[in-house]
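for the writeup, i need someone to sanity check this before i put it in the appendix. the sequnce is what the collaborator sent (i think, or maybe the updated version? ugh). structure was predicted straight from it, no edits. if anything looks off just tell me and ill rerun, i have time this weekend
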Amino acid sequence: MSVNAELRAFYDSRREQIPADVRAVMQEAAQELADSGRAERALTVGDRAPGFTLRSAAGRSVDLAELLADGPVVLTFYRGAWCPYCNIALRSLGEHHEAVTARGARLVAVSPQNPDDSLTLAEKHELAFDVLSDPGCDTAKQYGLAFDVPDALAAVYTRMGIDLDRYHAGHPRTLPIPATYVIDRAGTIRWAFVDPDYITRAEPADVLAALDGLN
């Protein structure tokens, strides 16, 4: 099953469990983000990938330039471990980690979560790749992916027990649009997937094909 088929099946399985008023707020916020054109303005193929140095879940500093010195990088932005769709997408990428490294590339995931919560995610899914913390989505902003959650949606998250203020170390309203990039050793984005619909994610098979296309 493709990751997007799995994501859609998960959405369908829980849709009726979400109160109608909550679904309405979520749908309105999703449409507002799609209509904003932010995803279309995000960095894409041919753009230079902005550098960053971020802390990993294990407490290490990870620098993009140092990673690129060893080979291409697959960089994926996700909302956080509180998002079940992100967990499904990351688990799917993790299942293809060996195929990524076999192509000489590194896989790196970035979210606004603080490192302690990222570590919990890494342990839970036994991820073999770096999970990095991007407080306030400063790196996501450089890629054109950051947006502020509307008040109504923030209230819904609180109602659902999702404490973004705690998860995001005091930056509760800023999230990244889920995105995945393949960056070549020269630091140029060679493949990009950016979609404001959080239920839709990059297919690992497409990521691998993009890596194959670098040679």
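Residues 3-212 form a domain with the Glutaredoxin fold (CATH 3.40.30.10). The chain has eleven helices and nine strands.
thx in advance!!
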